[in-house]
């Protein structure tokens, strides 16, 4: 018990004083937290007897058993909070009416309209520092968990009883560990937002079998390749940006008929683009900037009839920028700068189309300003990649390579921006009902 106390103290102090130490939670520390969670987690759904003493439950009355459990869960959550600068959780004490707590929302239970239960927690943007105790798993009626833009650190415990979870947003915190696989066990999940944390490692393939509407993974440390199952996903918006993904864009992407927006920028993705991308009739935003893509832009891109924003900059693309693409009716931002293109159709010349921003800087385009030097272009342009034999566009799967971290920087990197590169997705209606008036939507 003593050892545990020391650890907590160490954890809390380091977490609040120097976020980078908290971020670097070692495997051993994560395992310790997990073990501790396994010890306290009520396995049969009943509260252990010692909870009666610990939370003084004997003298308290509750409208129903689920609100009693919610009280235990929220008191444990309150205990895990060690900085709450706006006093958001100030009224979470000496009060058994959990429905009156700031950020806690109650509703009739789905399976029994006669009883009231905790259906949502919304603590967005409160700068709270803390962690998620296993006891939160007692909130079995929770459908909405919004804690974005706080300072929660540690891992996401095994909340496998959150069977009604619909919107889960933990973005812009200091969470670590591998992909939180527990989310795969939530059958109702539609909106999953993990962006701006420090999750690492591989994505589970099963993630793309879920019936999600929106999936935000950007600004973490995910690596390996994007699973081949991507094409099974029902998402309309998905962001992989600013991670360490490598390998191809899976050819199955062509099956994602709900897809409106996909952001793949700033990874180590490579190879030629699969021509299957051209079958995405509803695609409005396609951003693959700052990767290692090479070869030609497939002719099929001229079938992207809904495309508005097409960002191909900072890759090693070659060949001709086709007029057919530049003429696409909704295209308003086509950025293909910082590549090795050698030619472009007349309609692709920046300024040639009203209400459209085209950027062709730093390519190998004769007679265009601001291009690369000839001796930079020559070695690339004279060795064109044959995409009909490329692993990414013509079949085959390249080996998936784990990410090896660069040497540690000596300075602490700046905190992530609150603003995200993508607009917030349309919020599902059920969630709107639960979101309190006056709180800000997720970033
Ligand atoms: C709980 O009730 C017992 C007796 O019923 C009493 O002695 C004790 O002081 C009460 N505790 C609190 C916290 O009210
Ligand atoms: C929060 O509560 C503390 C102690 O009651 C008080 O000193 C502080 O000013 C409060 N902060 C805000 C933002 O209300
Ligand atoms: C809810 O309460 C009503 C009236 O007391 C009762 O008729 C009904 O059976 C109850 N429903 C459930 C699911 O318990
Ligand atoms: C086009 O999109 C890029 C990338 O999102 C952005 O940096 C640029 O400002 C946009 N251009 C215009 C004119 O909106």
Automatic annotation (TrEMBL):
- For this entry, list what GO says about its biological process: cell wall organization
InterPro entries the UniProt entry points to: Leu-rich_rpt (IPR001611), LRR_dom_sf (IPR032675), LRR_extensin-like_regulator (IPR051582), LRR_N_plant-typ (IPR013210)
Signal peptide location in the record?
A: 1-24
Q: Which UniProt keywords apply?
A: Cell wall, Cell wall biogenesis/degradation, Glycoprotein, Hydroxylation, Leucine-rich repeat, Repeat, Secreted, Signal
Pro residues composition-biased segments: 399-428
Domain (Leucine-rich repeat-containing N-terminal plant-type) spans 73-106
Please verify whether the record's keywords include ATP-binding: no
Query: What is the protein's major site of localization?
Result: secreted
Compartments it resides in:
Secreted, Cell wall
Does the record carry Secreted as a key word?
yes
- An example of a Pfam family matching this protein is LRR_8
Please give the residue ranges the record annotates as the region Disordered.
396-443
What is the protein name stated in its UniProt record? Answer: Cell wall hydroxyproline-rich glycoprotein
């Amino acid at each position: 018990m003593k050892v545990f106390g020391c650890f907590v103290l160490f954890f809390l102090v380091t977490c609040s004083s120097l976020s980078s130490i908290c971020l670097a939670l070692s495997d051993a520390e994560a395992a310790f937290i997990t073990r501790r969670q396994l010890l306290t987690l009520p396995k049969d759904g009943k509260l252990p007897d010692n909870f009666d003493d610990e939370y003084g439950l004997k003298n308290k009355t509750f409208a129903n058993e689920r609100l009693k459990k919610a009280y235990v869960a929220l008191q444990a959550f309150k205990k895990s909070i060690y900085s709450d600068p706006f006093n958001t959780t100030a009224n979470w004490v000496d009060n058994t009416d959990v429905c009156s707590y700031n950020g806690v929302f109650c509703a009739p239970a789905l399976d029994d309209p006669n009883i009231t239960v905790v259906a949502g927690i919304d603590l967005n943007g409160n700068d709270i520092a803390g962690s998620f105790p296993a006891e939160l798993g007692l909130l079995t009626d929770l459908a909405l968990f919004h804690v974005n833009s706080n300072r929660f650190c540690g891992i996401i415990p095994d909340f496998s009883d959150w069977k009604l979870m619909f919107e889960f947003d933990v973005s812009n915190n200091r969470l670590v560990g591998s992909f939180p696989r527990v989310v795969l066990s939530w059958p109702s999940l539609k909106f999953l937002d993990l962006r701006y944390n420090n999750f690492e490692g591989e994505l589970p393939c099963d993630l793309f079998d879920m019936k999600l509407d929106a999936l935000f993974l950007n600004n973490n440390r995910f690596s390996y390749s994007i699973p081949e199952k991507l094409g099974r996903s029902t998402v309309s918006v998905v962001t992989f940006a600013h991670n360490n993904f490598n390998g191809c864009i899976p050819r199955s992407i062509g099956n994602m008929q709900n897809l409106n927006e996909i952001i793949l920028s700033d990874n180590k993705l490579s190879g030629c683009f699969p021509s299957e991308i051209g079958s995405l009739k509803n695609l409005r935003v396609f951003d693959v900037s700052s990767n290692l893509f090479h070869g030609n832009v497939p002719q099929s891109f001229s079938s992207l009839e809904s495309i508005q924003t097409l960002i191909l900059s900072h890759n090693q693309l070659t060949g001709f920028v086709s007029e057919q693409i530049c003429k696409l009716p909704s295209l308003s931002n086509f950025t293909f700068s910082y590549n090795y293109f050698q030619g472009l159709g007349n309609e692709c010349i920046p300024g040639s189309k009203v209400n459209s921003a085209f950027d062709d800087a730093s390519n190998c385009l004769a007679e265009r300003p601001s291009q690369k030097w000839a001796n930079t272009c020559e070695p690339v342009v004279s060795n064109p990649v044959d995409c009909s034999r490329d692993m990414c566009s013509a079949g085959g799967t390249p080996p998936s390579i784990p990410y090896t971290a660069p040497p540690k920087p000596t300075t602490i990197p700046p905190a992530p921006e609150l603003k995200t590169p993508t607009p917030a997705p349309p919020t599902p209606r059920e969630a709107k009902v639960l979101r309190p008036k006056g709180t800000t939507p997720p970033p």
